[in-house]
């Protein structure tokens, strides 16, 4: 297992380097001069002399390969420069906001798993029943419901009409309920249908028939044999969801004024705060590739054939 993990870690290095190159070039090749954006955010008139001085100060007058090399070396040490808006180190700003986004994403993932796994199992065990058909309707509604619209509706009913929950900000656990439910709604229906389909496929496999023929209890057959194998697609979806929950919380954070990384990044994009955008993209890239690594490890633990195949290759 250790050799398998080591090979997977080494394979992530070229992926991250490729993402860093693409991110660096896209931001450098977009219309607009970063030096002018820096001056405007600092409320300094962008005269030719001031722009030239700032370009020299930020190293923008050097060739692109030199700029990228210096930026990459600093990025490895978590030095992404200073924000054009706050004039503070970008990583220090991110470190203050990451806990809020992680809290929102973690609560959303917990709600998703606690809700979808029992419903998916019950839906598979009662195929084409009233509960299964209801889950099918929920899946269609979930797929067609935008996050921002659902957030405003929940805010309207539970905050304005019923006056049960706060509308925005971060504080107590009550502030977390509405944004977490909004963020998890679309994932709940997806997980239910995914687990249902996977369980139905595994229930038709020969190993389930043999387990029943050996006289094993139905609860043991479902829990030990069917559910364990049916969790493989769910693990894949969960690994991808971690990245999407962290990066996809941008809309929800803006709707509920949640002080997280996503909201900070939207402001940085509007202000052309390039160091913040670069840091955000690279941080999300690392989260995605690490989530995929955790999924591969979980796969290898659930199905040893995958580990053996990876080690032999």
CATH architecture of the largest domain: Orthogonal Bundle
CATH evolutionary superfamily of the largest domain: MetI-like
Percent helix, as a range, is over 70%
What is the overall shape?
A: flat
How many structural domains? 2
User: What is the first-to-last residue Cα distance?
Assistant: 13 Å
CATH topology label of the largest domain: MetI-like fold
Topology as a string of helices (H) and strands (E): HHHHHHHHHHHHHH
The averaged pLDDT comes out at: 80
Taken as a percent bin, the fraction of beta residues is under 5%
| Structural class designation | mainly alpha
Largest sheet: none
Q: What is the β-strand count?
A: 0
Give me the Rg, rounded: 24 Å
Q: What is the C-level CATH assignment of the largest domain?
A: Mainly Alpha
Tally of DSSP helical segments:
14
Enumerate the spans where pLDDT stays under 50 for 5 or more consecutive residues: none
Structure description:
It is built from 14 helices and no strands. The chain is mostly helical and 313 residues long. Helix 1 runs antiparallel to helix 13, helix 2 crosses helix 3 and helix 8 packs across helix 10. It is flat, with a radius of gyration of 24 Å.
Structural features:
2 domains; 313 residues; mainly alpha; MetI-like fold; flat; 14 helices; single chain
């Amino acid at each position: 297992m250790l050799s398998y993990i080591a090979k997977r870690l080494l394979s992530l290095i070229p992926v991250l380097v490729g993402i860093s190159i693409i991110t660096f070039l896209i931001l450098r090749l977009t219309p607009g001069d970063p030096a002018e954006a820096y001056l405007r955010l600092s409320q300094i008139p962008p005269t030719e002399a001031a722009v030239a001085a700032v370009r020299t100060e930020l190293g923008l007058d050097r060739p692109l390969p030199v700029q990228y090399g210096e930026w990459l070396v600093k990025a490895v040490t978590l030095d992404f420069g200073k924000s054009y808006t706050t004039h503070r180190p970008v990583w220090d700003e991110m470190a203050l906001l990451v806990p809020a986004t992680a809290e929102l994403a973690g609560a959303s993932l917990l709600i998703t798993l606690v809700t979808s796994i029992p419903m998916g199992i019950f839906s598979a065990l009662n195929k084409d029943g009233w509960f299964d058909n209801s889950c099918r309707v929920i899946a269609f509604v979930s797929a067609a419901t935008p996050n921002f619209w659902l957030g405003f509706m929940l805010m309207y009913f539970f905050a304005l009409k019923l006056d049960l929950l706060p509308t925005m900000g971060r504080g107590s656990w009550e502030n977390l309920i509405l944004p977490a439910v909004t963020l998890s709604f679309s994932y709940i229906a997806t997980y239910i249908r995914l687990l249902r389909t996977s369980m139905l496929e595994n229930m038709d496999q020969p190993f389930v028939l043999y387990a029943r023929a050996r006289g094993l209890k139905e609860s043991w057959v479902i829990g030990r044999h069917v559910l364990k194998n049916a969790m493989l697609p769910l693990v894949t979806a969960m690994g991808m969801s971690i990245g999407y929950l962290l990066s996809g919380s941008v809309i929800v954070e803006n709707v509920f004024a949640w002080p997280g990384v996503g909201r900070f990044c939207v402001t940085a994009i509007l202000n052309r705060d390039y160091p913040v955008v670069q840091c955000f993209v690279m941080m999300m890239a690392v989260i995605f590739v690490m989530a995929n690594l955790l999924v591969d490890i979980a796969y290898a633990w659930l199905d040893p054939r995958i580990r053996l195949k990876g080690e032999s290759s």
